[in-house]
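Backbone geometry:

***
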Amino acid sequence: MRAWVLLSAVLWYLTGGGAPPARPPGFPQLPGPLYTVLFVIVKVYVKLHHNSPVLVCMDFKRAEKETVDPTYLWVGPNEKPLSGSNRINITNTGKLTVKDFLEPLSGLYTCSFSYKTIKAETQEEKVVKQRYDFMIFAYREPDYSYQMAVRFTTKSCEGKYNDLLFRVLKKILDNLIFDLSCHIIEPSYKCHFVKVPKHGLIHELFIAFQVNPFAPGWKGTCNESIDCEDTTNHNILQARNRIEEFFRSQAYIFNHDLNKTLPAMHFVDHSFQIVRMDSCRPGFGKNEGLHSNCATCCVVCSPGTFSPDVDVTCQTCISVQIYGAKSCQ
């Protein structure tokens, strides 16, 4: 039985409303090469397990000019010269790409660039040296969950029917999103008296719950992917849409009932509320002040900070000397 039918049947049964009404028919492209300018450190954000953009060892003005005898020397976060490898790619024109980016690869990347200027009349040569800095940070998308709230009318704040409705609703919603490896957590409800204009006092159940993408066995949906965030975030978005459509159907049913005989327990139209809640994996956090260009990202915790759980901030720990620390040691 479809979820909307099941809940409608329960509501009409609980309130003696007879048979429910019939439902009417129908219902990362990478950026281009990155240049910097002298004396400016450019911040670059690379998604975990993705390739960095191409970093160019000269400014844009110099790239538009002829350059004689250019040389390039890239130095990585460990302050050692970088050389070509299966993870580091440096072209003969000084362009750097870091492949399959990981937390420990975060840090300052510096390129020392030199070239010659030659006076045409004397053939006198002069060596010009310049330095360009890129600060690269690993990041990942936050894990999404949704806090939702709805309201149902009820006959009274006493009696067993309120608890029964609450348990049936949770079961319906869990079944609705089960195949997405999502589930309902922290469900709760309270009964209140509500003064409604032109209707006097009525009883309403204020129901709240969270939709979470980490139901038991959720890792099995990742298809052996190294990073599961894209899958879990896709699933939680699907779960949100299904639940939103479910409550939209409840409003449709009762607003379009030809007999206009609503059961005493029914969904309160326009009461559905939803708020997205973000969390970061251990070793990552949000910092809009430090990472304004990636304010919604979970950015790797810098040395001197750590994040031990699914919080959204990196905590201070002066003894930490690495990127992506998950503990203060």
Summary: The longest helix spans residues 229-255.
